[in-house]
Design brief:
Length: about 120
């Protein structure tokens, strides 16, 4: 059981990367069939909300702070800026290039965010 606890992060990352690969394949197929990248982003967010919202409601019921107007505005601004723009640019690039190039750009973007965050703490 101790080894399993140590392996949990690696298992989680493996499933996360498998999910990314599946999403890349599905999005490339949808874009090749003629779906707009903007519509694909909306569908992706809708499915993610339906899948993740029950976990958030059940598991974090007592941990949530009060929803104030300031918190709501910050959530809306962050949700519009980072994932929507990032995914639209990713899918736009996915129409022109293959999925491997687009995924490597996304990984570089994540690494860049981490490096910027570490620079701020130093």
């Amino acid at each position: 059981m101790k080894n399993f606890d140590r392996a949990k992060p690696f298992i989680a990352v493996t499933f996360l990367q498998a999910g990314f690969a599946g999403m890349d394949i599905l999005s490339k197929a949808a874009l090749n069939q003629g779906m707009s990248n903007y519509v694909l982003v909306v569908y992706r967010h809708a499915v993610a909300t339906v899948v993740i919202a029950p976990f958030a409601v059940i598991l974090d019921k007592k941990l949530r702070p009060k929803m104030t107007l300031a918190i709501f505005i910050k959530l809306v601004a962050l949700s519009l800026l980072e994932p929507v723009i990032d995914q639209n640019l990713y899918f736009l690039g996915n129409e022109v290039h293959n999925s491997n190039i687009c995924r490597s750009y996304c990984q570089c973007s994540s690494c860049n965010h981490l490096c910027n965050r570490l620079d701020r703490k130093a």
